[in-house]
Amino acid sequence: MGWRDGASPVAAGPAAHGPLLRVDRATLEYKAGQRRIRATHEVSFDVWPQDRFILLGPSGCGKSTLLKAAAGFVAPVSGALLLDGVPVRAPGPDRVVVFQEFDQLPPWKTVKQNVAFPLRTAHRLPRREAEERALHYLDKVGLSAFADAYPHTLSGGMKQRVAIARALAMQPRILLMDEPFAALDALTRRRMQEELLRLWEDSPFTLLFVTHSIEEALIIGNRILLLSPHPGRVRAELNAHQYGLHSPGSSAFQAAAQRIHTLLFGEAGTAEAAARRAA
What we know:
By secondary structure, the protein is α/β, with parallel strands linked by helices. The protein has a domain at 103-171. The protein has helices at residues 63-71, 111-122, 127-140, 156-169, 186-202, 214-220, 251-278; strands at 2-3, 21-32, 35-47, 52-56, 78-83, 86-87, 95-98, 174-178, 207-211, 223-227, 234-239. Helix 2 (111-122) packs parallel to helix 4 and helix 4 packs parallel to helix 5.
């Protein structure tokens, strides 16, 4: 396990070509009523092509704000976010976000129409080509039989699979996921993690994934950035490519999870977490 406390991440791709996404000393703020809240302070990291890069930290550390900045919804007050060396200034079809909320699908459109619609508007594909691509990605997430169904007939996990199919159908440079499985029950969450990794294995894509679950970060990510409590600063990073769906029961996995917990919350927080597990 490769740790570099407080440092910038180790490149996981060919250095000659540079990272796909570079976050360079980004300080982000947002408005809350009449106040401006500092979400992150001079955060830096690189996301390389085909990375499964995780932003991990406690609530309020700015990880979702960083994702919104990468999507182009939030501009840094200092520092920069660069996609292929070009500053991110606005949203674009090269970055697609999957949110936590189940109700991100227009309810008046069928499943197929939900996946095809952004292809027609953003990529300006003809109807037939957009529908063919929509059906292809619905098949990849196991929902081709529900192509003509409406969102209200689907479970929460199925809605998230439609959202993932819609995002992947756009073939973005980077897929942004903001705690997409947090509201699901444990069994469905596990299945969604399996689905996501299977899709990545089938056709590797670049993923920037926000979570507050240490176990989920280790399972899904090949690289993990740890952020301190508000305002978020880089606390540490690690390479986690050696872990996966079948790792949680191993001693190495448990040791890594404990190490992360200590870095995020200190020794006292780790002892409290161990006591809760033993109770």
